[in-house]
Amino acid sequence: MTLTAPADATTGSLGATSPSIHVVIDRCAGCQECIVRCPTQALRMDPYTWTAVGDDQRCVGCRQCERTCPYAAITIDGPELVAARVVLATTHPDNLAYNRSETRRSITTWHEALDEANRCLDCPDPTCVRGCPAHNDIPMFIRALRSGDLDDAHRVIRATSYLPDICSRVCDQAVQCEGACSWSLAGSTPVAIGALERFIADNAPVPPIAKAWADTTPSARVAVVGSGPAAMAASAELIQGGVEVTVFERDEHPGGLCRWGIPDFTLPEPVARRPWNDLAAAGVRLHTNHNVDADELTSLARDYDALVVATGASVALRAPVPGSDLDGVWDATQFLQAAHSALANGSPLPFLENSGLTDDASCATKAPRVLVIGAGNTAMDVARSARRLGALATCIDWMDRRFAPVRPDELDEATAEGVEVRFSTTLRRLIGEGGRVTQAELAETVQPKAAKKPKVLVAKTSRIPVDMVVMAMGYRIDADVAKLGGDVPVARKAHGLADRRWVASGLLANPAPDAARNQPVGLLALGREHAAAQAAYPRRDRTWFAGDSLVGPSTVVEAMTQGKIAAQAILASLTHQMPGSESIDG
Q1: Cα angle 259-261-266, degrees, rounded to a multiple of 5
Q2: Cβ atoms of 148 and 489 closer than 8 Å
Q3: How many distinct helices (H) and strands (E) make up the chain?
Q4: pLDDT band at 208 (very low <50, low <70, confident <90, very high)
Q5: Given this structure, which CATH class describes domain 220-314+477-488+539-577?
Q6: How crowded is residue 250: how many other Cβ atoms within 10 Å of its Cβ?
Q7: Average pLDDT, stretch 66-74?
Q8: Which of 105, 112, 281, 442 is the most buried if burial means most Cβ atoms within 10 Å?
Q9: Where are the alpha helices (DSSP H) in 1-105?
Q10: Which residues make up the CATH 3.30.70.20 domain(s) of the chain?
Q11: CA 269, CA 260: separation in Å to the nearest integer?
């Protein structure tokens, strides 16, 4: 430890085996920000100079002091002292045909769970909580796990999340909680928060939902349109708050994207069904096969005490290219719904009737060819489902691989299962015979910088044979629903100066760690906070929007959080409206 400006050649270097704390006395103002945030008590105040003093023997190199010091008075030299992260295996069946078994493995033993839990620093101001859209108290549920109490761990998670078994499987933790972990911000490997959450959910039942009104008359009636994550959370919060909840869902089964949009090999059907089984048992009234149009939304707001619009971003984007109207050109929603049923029933999918996986190379060449436009989460799900239905699958994305927002784990899973993924490639047109698509004309693209839009190289084109094309380029909100919501979708972007607590946390000081795929985790988290706050405000009379209906395509955990916020706002508004309740003015 030194109390001088930058370290000299004899103190920390690339060959250092332990961290070394350096404090620039002339810069230290004695504010104690570093001391209150150090998780290992490696810093204290010198009572005579009233400056920070470090203890190298206690320092683990997490660099929280560096990130939180408002005067840049502290630097840490040397490595991060953290154990290796648990290795989470991914398995792929030898025979993919109609195989729906889960491929992503999690922590399976208490020994592994405790080893990983012990990597957590239990930070005084945990940035991982800010990175989690639901604000799960991650250090607290890890403490419960360390003590061997799964029920207490569930209690902690349940305070903020209704879907721990789902979120732990489908969340992109790398750009959320794990990307905001102190170890990630320090340049090391974050705690496997998602795997620990899944260990809890898989090894102890998720607690049931208890309605507050039991056999008494509920205080009010609220309608919810949609049944995805936002609707699930809103319904659970409302029924626990003493409200009668009626849900309207256009599909035959509830669950939205979680039910049909995420394949069983990522989210097993029993796990996807669990929330609605619990909601039904708690008394939520569900009407399926009921499509609510814009006019009925208005009447529901009039007939019920409040309305939650959680219909999702249901309109699939399609590439505006010649030939997109040919038979055999599907959107991702259409494909995933059909593929879900086909895989469950062991039946072929239309346009893929001649499919069949075989070890015979000559037969493999006869397999139908599916071209997927896009290379994001949905595109990978489409391609991997197509492989299980016996097709050859190719994904194309016009972005350069260096800048494409694809998750590396999903890309690895897809390629391991035989999916071909071509980056820097775009679709120019589709060609057909007899009204059915038979070829796709592709063009190469070039993208020198992430901020630059890819440029299409029209001189570099090629054609490939296709039997089916699936547009998996994303979704948007239905125009009629958006009109009712006013200025939706709400931008997930914060404005003005960040709150002092966010600045002091250090999350914004190192916003793009390697573990987060160099994504600005701090700014992303702050933007999510801004958007989620909008869920508390009605968009029109007695009508709240949540999830994709509010912000456009979002993640399961974001939608869940917004549904809960909207429900809490409704409960607060109903309380003020109840006879005998105090007015806002007191």
Answers
A1: 80
A2: no
A3: 21, 19
A4: confident
A5: alpha beta
A6: 17
A7: 95
A8: 442
A9: 33-37, 64-68
A10: 20-77
A11: 9
Using alpha carbons only, give the angle 480, 529, 126 rounded to the nearest 5 degrees. Answer: 150
Q: Are 415 and 421 in contact (CB under 8 A)?
A: yes
**Cis omega (within 30 of 0) for bond into 579:** no
Mean per-residue pLDDT, 199-207: 92
Pairing of strands 243-248, 52-54: unpaired
- pLDDT level of residue 14 (50, 70, 90 thresholds): very low
d(CA 428, CA 456): 9
pLDDT higher at 570 or 4: 570
Give the type of residue at 472: A
248-269 tens-digit pLDDT: 999 999 999 898 889 999 999 9
Residue carrying structure tokens 């209690």: 155
Q: Where in the chain is the domain with CATH 3.50.50.60?
A: 220-314+477-488+539-577, 316-475
Topology (CATH level 3) of domain 316-475 = FAD/NAD(P)-binding domain (3.50.50)
Beta-bridge mates of residue 246:
223, 285
Region 500-523: what's the mean pLDDT?
91
Query: Helices marked H in 11-136 — which ranges?
Result: 33-37, 64-68, 110-117, 127-131
Q: How far does CA 526 lie from the centroid of its chain?
A: 15
Q: Check residue 571 and give its pLDDT.
A: 96
For domain 110-203, give the CATH number.
Answer: 1.10.1060.10
Tokens of 373: 């436009």
Please provide the DSSP assignment of 144-192 as one string.
HHHTT-HHHHHHHHHTT-S-HHHHHHH--GGGTTTTTSHHHHTTSPPP-
pLDDT in tens, 90-125: 888 889 999 999 999 889 999 999 999 999 999 999
* Per-residue pLDDT tens digits for 428-445: 999 999 999 999 999 999
Question: For residues 21 and 61, what is the distance between their CA atoms, to the nearest angstrom?
Answer: 9
Q: Which CA distances in Å does 351 have to 335, 375, 409, 435, 472?
A: 11, 22, 29, 13, 17
Residue 3 has pLDDT above 50, yes or no: no
Pairing of strands 425-433, 285-287: unpaired
Encode pLDDT of 214-243 as tens digits.
666 777 999 999 999 999 999 999 999 999
